[in-house]
C-alpha cells in the first residue's frame, strides 16, 4: 500500500501548521527565514548544537523553500505572537524567615 504525498501549490508558502502540531493564528503564518534563524540560535544556546531533524532544521528547510519560490523575503520574520492573557508577576519572597517561625 502506498500513500500519496499531498502536493502544495507553488503559490502557497509552507506554514507552521503544515509542519508542527499548532493551531490558531500561528498555524496560518508562513515560516520565515528570520524565525528559522531565531530558532537556530535558541537551540544552540539551549543544547549547544542544532540537531538534524530538529525544529530549527525543519524551519530552515521550510523557510528556504518559501524564499526560493519567491513567497517570502530573506529578512522576513513573523510578528511575535500576541499573548492571550497577561501572566501575573510572581510575588517576591522574603529570604528571611518570619520572626514567629521558630
From TrEMBL:
Domain of life: Eukaryota
Key word Repeat present: yes
The UniProt record lists the keyword Nucleus: no
Annotated SMP domain residues: 14-68
Residue segments, region Disordered: 72-102
The entry's keywords: Repeat
Entry-linked InterPro entries: LEA_SMP (IPR042971), LEA_SMP_dom (IPR007011)
Start-end of Low complexity biased regions: 92-102
Family statement drawn from the similarity comment of this UniProt entry: Belongs to the LEA type SMP family.
Protein name (Swiss-Prot/TrEMBL): (wild Malaysian banana) hypothetical protein
Organism field: Musa acuminata subsp. malaccensis
